[in-house]
Amino acid sequence: MGKVFPDAKAALAGLLRDGMMIHSGGFGLCGIPSLLIEAIRDSGVRDLTIVSNNAGIDDAGLGLLLKTRQVRKMISSYVGENKTFAEQFLAGELEIEFNPQGTLAERIRAGGAGIPAFYTKTGVGTEVAKGKPTAEFDGETYVQERGIVADLAIVHAYMGDAEGNLIYRKTARNFNPMMATAAKVTVAQVEHLVKPGELDPDHIVTPGVYVKRMVQCPPGYEKRIEQRTVRRREPAAAGGVA
User: Fold this and answer.
1) What is the pLDDT of residues 57-75, one digit of tens each?
2) What InterPro entries would the database entry show (predicted)?
3) Domains, the chain, ranges and CATH?
4) Other CB atoms closer than 10 Å to residue 208's CB: what's the count?
C-alpha cells in the first residue's frame, strides 16, 4: 500500500488505541496537524498522553481533545492560552508534566536518535528536577532527563512527496521534524503533495523513511492564527505620497 491516504481518518485507521502516547507537532497554532487532531477527536480514543509544546487554545488544536476529555496527561512546556486546560488541571482531572522548552525539544530529539537519557543544567534545584537523578560534571550539577519515544507522531509539513519526504515552511517547522523521528509510527499532513523526484533533495528536512502515512490538506485548508498583532497605520504626512 502507498503512503498517501484519502483523508485523515483513513490515515489513522488501525493506529489509535486508548492510553497511547502521541507526539503532536506545532507551536501555538503554527504548524499544527489540525486535520489529524480532528480525526483523533472523532475516533473517540481516550486516556491519551500528548507530548506537545502547548495545549492549543479552547476551540482549536489540541484544545479540541481537551474539550472532549480524551487527554489524561500533557507533557508540555507552555499551556497558558487554554482555559479548558487550566480548569481540568486545577480540578485534578488532567495530569501535566512540565518541561523547559529546550529540554522538551531535546528529549524528543534524543528519543529519535536512540539516546535514552542526557544531562542538562536547566531546572536544577527546581520542581522540574524533583525525583530525577543528578550528577556532577566539571564541578557543576546536572539533572538527568529521559528521551521520549511516542506510539504515534502526527506532524504538519508544507510540502511532501508520495515517498514521505517532507519540507517545512519557516517557523511552522518548529517541533515537527524531531517528532517525526521519535515515534513508532509517524503520520504527516501536507499542504502541497508532489510527485517523487520533484522535491529538491537539499531542501528535504524529514526523509521519507520516517513517515509511514500521509494525507494532503484539502483546498481552502484554514491555518488559524493564535494572536494577531498589527501595527497601527499612521496618516500620511501633508504633501506626502498616500
Assistant:
1) 888 999 999 999 999 999 9
2) 3-oxoacid_CoA-transf_A, CoA_trans_fam_I, NagB/RpiA_transferase-like
3) 4-121+148-216 (3.40.1080.10)
4) 19
